[in-house]
Design goal:
384 residues; alpha/beta; Enolase-like, domain 1; TIM Barrel; 2 domains; 9-stranded mixed β-sheet; 13 helices; 39% helix; 18% strand
Length: 384
């Protein structure tokens, strides 16, 4: 089976809270069904047209005419060429991740098996945590109402996000903690907002509230400060959605930057690389909880990763994006209504088990590049 085409498909979807862009990738072969992948920049794919250019100008010429079933060779070929020309991180790795997922989809379909038939599977359902919104968006009662549909379906872990007004957010969090059942774990995402002294102050309060982990409190490039935070904080520190490839994660672990590692198949290099990262992190004593915050293809890919690595006991579930999963995905049970005992079924059809909708449907969601941004931060929150 030879690859005949590699195409990127950028779209923008109007969610109730905000519009969000996504970037899907389609790989066609001369004998078989197409395969689909997806790129994620940590939340959807903001600059999807830039990813499109990388896919079609840099990656596609290295793939067309090659055997579609030799996925790991093809991925190594892409990384080997782009590393010295475009780099091996950020948008390039987002694009490679999407292509690799699509290649796995084609290869599995060609054999009539799921992704698990190629990489293994240890479970048919994956426990998830509810990845929710910013605390500043409502009071504790409002957040409880938003989470209730997932809690009633057995979800027992919730992540919320801190904004710049962290003191007010912490008051809301304390009130929410009092409303939730004791067996519901809480996690907090700092969205890279804070300085080290401020992050330490926040971490102490989070520990008092029994929060499980503090995610990305500092900007990712402040690596020495992150390592110091991880040493001094009274709760677990989590990083991973802005790390790329096995070596970047190995460096994070060796530096002692985090005890919760969060790779994403649509970001970190694809399905095979994310499995390697998960196994490495587990061997280093870290907890592995994959990141996921994009469309239906990325969710399916991360479900297959989580289902294939025994060390992965929990997966991020960004339920506010569920309407995009329904709009763009076909054939898989991904929405909150399919949760049972806090677990989501792993797609069972050949390949990823989810198909991208047709071109006519995608055309209803043309890509809209991001416009001017008000309030873009120029420094981290903290006056010390």
């Amino acid at each position: 089976m030879k690859i005949t085409g590699v195409t990127a498909l950028p779209v923008t979807f109007g969610h109730a809270r905000e519009s969000l862009s996504y970037c899907f990738v389609r790989v066609d072969s001369d004998d078989g069904a197409p395969g689909y992948g997806e790129a994620c920049d940590s939340f959807g794919c903001t600059y999807a047209r830039v990813v499109e250019r990388v896919v079609e100008d840099a990656l596609a010429p290295l793939l067309v005419g090659e055997d579609v079933t030799d996925v790991e060779y093809l991925t190594a070929r892409l990384r080997g060429w782009t590393r010295r020309r475009l780099g091996d991180q950020w948008i390039v790795m987002h694009a490679i991740s999407a292509v690799e997922i699509a290649l796995f989809d084609v290869a599995a379909k060609a054999r009539g098996v799921t992704i698990g038939g190629l990489v293994g599977r240890v479970r048919d359902r994956v426990p998830v945590y509810a990845s929710s919104v910013f605390l500043e968006e409502g009071d504790a009662d409002w957040h409880c109402a938003l989470l209730e549909p997932l809690l009633t379906r057995g979800v027992r872990a919730v992540k919320l996000r801190l904004g710049p007004d962290y003191r007010r957010d912490l008051e809301t969090l304390a009130a929410l903690r009092a409303l939730l059942d004791d067996d519901v774990d809480l996690m907090i995402d700092g969205n890279e907002n804070f300085t080290l002294p401020t992050a330490l102050t926040i971490a102490a309060r989070l520990a008092d509230l029994g929060v499980l982990w503090f995610e990305e409190p500092l900007p990712q490039h402040h690596r020495s400060a992150i390592a110091e935070l991880n040493r001094r904080a009274p709760l677990a520190i989590a990083y991973g959605e802005h790390l790329f490839g096995l070596h970047d994660f190995a460096d994070c672990l060796q530096r002692g930057e985090a005890s919760v590692i969060q790779p994403d198949a649509a970001t970190a290099g694809g399905i095979a690389e994310t499995r390697r990262i998960a196994q490495l992190a587990h061997g280093a004593g870290a907890r592995v909880v994959p990141h996921c915050a994009a469309g239906p293809i990325a969710l399916a890919a991360n479900l297959h990763v989580a289902a294939s690595v025994p060390a992965v006991q929990l997966l991020e579930y960004p339920f506010p994006l569920a309407d995009a999963w329904e709009a763009f995905g076909e054939g898989a049970q991904l929405g909150p209504e399919h949760l049972e005992d806090g677990m989501l079924p792993v797609p069972a059809a050949p390949g990823l088990g989810v198909e991208l909708v047709g071109g006519e449907t995608l055309a209803r969601y043309p890509y809209v590049p991001p416009g001017p941004r008000d309030g873009v931060p120029t420094r981290s929150v903290g006056d010390r």
